Amino acid sequence: MRRFGLAFLIAMSGVAPATAADLPSRVLTKAPAVNDPAYNWGGWYAGGQIGSAWGTSNVGNAFVDGAAPIANQQTFAATSPQLSATGFSGGGQIGYNHQVDRWLFGIEADASYTRLRQSSTVTAPFPGGGTFVATSSIGSDWMATLRPRAGYAIDRTIFYLTGGLALTDLNFASSYADTAGQSATAGFSKTRVGWVAGAGIEHAFTKNWTAKVEYLYADFGKQSVTTPVIAGAGAPNGLITQDVDLKTNTVRGGLNYHFNGPPFAKY
Fold first, then answer.
1. Which of 135, 133, 236 has its CA nearest to residue 179?
2. Element (H, E) at 214
């Protein structure tokens, strides 16, 4: 009996390896990677922004039509001031983005309160005798822009360039008086159309909310105003012409809420 049991164990030990050898080998497969879809910048958005604005305004003064001798005219022109205004900037924007692979194309409209203010008073002697006092002041309370945007997206961050149309209100006032009894006052308040260009960075920190920092430069061209010089009892004695321009710089940060947009296109 003992011999029979031993023979059975030997037989089974020979079968087991053969059976294991006949089984197919196990193939190890790597689990598929979990890839998050790229952030979608496409669609409508709206938000607000806050920052700082500053600008320069060159005021050109000139006597015309014989209001003063040539030497006096040259002295008056040489005292033309450059006004450097600073102010707060804050407002809102709305826009639309279309994304093609990593490239972003869109358009944005914004309006900001600026309150730029500056004035200058010049007192100087005339070469032919006597002195004069001239005061100039400029102001701008708001700026609005309509700008296409083009940028490049690196997942949740875009780098973009922008430029387009700009509007602002330009307010100017001036006064002139001299020791000969002549005086003049001038001023205007007009909406000026110009151009704007800039660049920015925007980052998405949630699915819908993004933060941005951008710089804008705007040029609103030149505006001229001519006013009569009043002498003595009120008789006109020539004219004063003044040319006024305005260039502004704005640095601001903002928040945008992005509404659900279509998936970006891969062309």
1. 133
2. strand 209-231
Per-residue pLDDT tens over the stretch 112-141: 999 899 999 999 998 878 899 999 999 999
Contact 138, 85 (CB under 8 A): yes
pLDDT, tens only, 73-90: 889 898 899 999 999 999
Q: Is residue 143 within 8 Å of 110, Cβ to Cβ?
A: no
- Mapping DSSP to helix (H, G, I), strand (E, B) and coil, where does residue 63 land? strand
Residue 133 gets the label, from left (phi > 0), alpha (psi -120 to 50) or beta, of: beta
Whole-number Å distance between alpha carbons of 186 and 237: 15
Q: Closest Cα partner for 174 from 71, 247, 79, 86?
A: 79
CB 149 within 8 A of CB 106: yes
**Residue 244, burial from CB neighbour count under 10 angstroms (0-12, 13-18, 19+):** buried
Residue 72: its H or E element = helix 70-78
Token pair, residue 234, equals 């009120």
Residue with tokens 């409508």: 44
| Cβ atoms of 61 and 77 closer than 8 Å | yes
Q: Which residues contact 23 (CB under 8 A, 6 or more apart)?
A: none
Nearest to 227 by CA among 173, 167, 164: 173
Domains of the chain: 46-90+101-258 (2.40.160)
Q: Both tokens of residue 215?
A: 């710089």
Burial (CB count <10 Å: 0-12, 13-18, 19+), residue 168: buried
**pLDDT (tens digit per residue) in 191-247:** 999 999 999 999 999 989 999 999 999 999 999 999 988 876 555 678 899 999 999
pTM: 0.80
Q: How many other C-beta atoms lie within 10 A of the C-beta of residue 229?
A: 22
